[in-house]
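Re: that chain you flagged

S.,

Sorry for the slow reply, it's been a week of failed gels. I finally had a moment to sit down with the sequence you sent. For the record, here it is as I used it:
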Amino acid sequence: MAIQRMDHVSVVVDDLEAATAFFSELGMALEGQAPIEGRSVDRVNGLDGVRVDIAMMRTPDGHGRLELTEFHSPEVVRPEPENALGNTLGLRSVMFAVDDLEATVAGLRAHGAELVGEVAQFEEGYRLCYVRGPAGIIVALAEQLG
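Prediction finished late last night. Pasting the structure tokens below so you have them in one place:
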């Protein structure tokens, strides 16, 4: 038995509208939005009284999906430290290939993104950077050179 595919990555955010705008700016398309609640949701999450709104975002190639989740109940738990860096255990970043790194960073800055470090060239093949996006998530961006 083996996995069939990676379906999506889920990110808990505190402002679904702003997060949707951020990832739309990156070039993702809103696939759907819905309120989610009920006993089955409680059971899957191991929490009682789950009430969330989700937005499913899709990459332009149709293969990658990102689920943005805003909790209404129970109250969200803030990570420690709040703006964890790349060497913190757990999921730290989601990486996207982009065609114009400078333009992408400029567009995301208009939605509150900040560079974590700086734009750097990796050997002869890529220009890379990390930006901090919605809810403190690190979004890695890579532009292939040549």
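What I noticed first: The first strand starts at residue 9 and ends at 12.

Talk soon,
D.
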